[in-house]
Amino acid sequence: MNTPLIYQKDAQLDLTIDYYHASTLPPSLVDWTFQLTKKIFIIFTESGKKAELQAPEARYLVARSTQDTTDLKGFLMFQMVQEETMDDDYMAEVAYCYELQLVEAARNQGLGEYLMGLLFQIGHHWKMEKVMLTVFKDNKGAMRFYTKKIGFKLDEISPGACLSPRKARKFDYEILSKPC
């Protein structure tokens, strides 16, 4: 994938998408990604979230204004990983979306779909079997976005897919996936 890429919805949303490896993400962007994800600290410690965002395997797609490089709109952080399956002898090759975060002003304009589409292209290029992510059940907007707009389904290892309904209720998240 050649970068930067351009995403243009209209005159209001003229964006450039930059690709970064965790080791090349400028300190100002490290800070910004951390601040944008702060709302989920109820389940993560600050140090745990920082470690996840700066993991050596982390890759970023960062959306910014084409005219003003300091006007950041959102990012998608992913890793290429091996993920468990219901077959104990098999690990799936996966492009795992750890974060998709957009500033409020950039939501509902197709940018999230575009970034996820890029992740599917990356996964396909690297011969990953599927794109996966974890979503909290109480985040109805995210669940609707991933399942209705993007076409994700419960992964075979998701609590809602592999446990009885009574046991699955104890989990506050689901794992979604879609083939590349």
From TrEMBL:
Q: Where in or outside the cell is it found?
A: Cytoplasm; Nucleus
The EC number of this protein is 2.3.1.257
Going by the UniProt record, its keywords in alphabetical order are: Acyltransferase, Cytoplasm, Nucleus, Transferase
The N-acetyltransferase domain is annotated at: 20-170
Under the cellular component aspect of Gene Ontology, which terms does the record hold?
cytoplasm; nucleus
Q: Does the keyword tRNA processing apply?
A: no
Annotated coiled-coil positions are: none
Q: Which InterPro entries match?
A: Acyl_CoA_acyltransferase, GNAT_dom, NAA40
A GO molecular function assigned to this protein is: protein N-terminal-serine acetyltransferase activity
Top-rank lineage group of the source organism: Eukaryota
* Keyword Acyltransferase among UniProt keywords: yes
Per its UniProt entry, what is the enzyme's top EC class, as one word? Answer: transferase
Q: Name the reaction it catalyses.
A: N-terminal L-seryl-[histone H2A] + acetyl-CoA = N-terminal N(alpha)-acetyl-L-seryl-[histone H2A] + CoA + H(+); N-terminal L-seryl-[histone H4] + acetyl-CoA = N-terminal N(alpha)-acetyl-L-seryl-[histone H4] + CoA + H(+)
Pfam families membership = Acetyltransf_1
Query: Can you tell me which family this protein belongs to?
Result: Belongs to the acetyltransferase family. NAA40 subfamily.
Protein name in UniProt: N-alpha-acetyltransferase 40
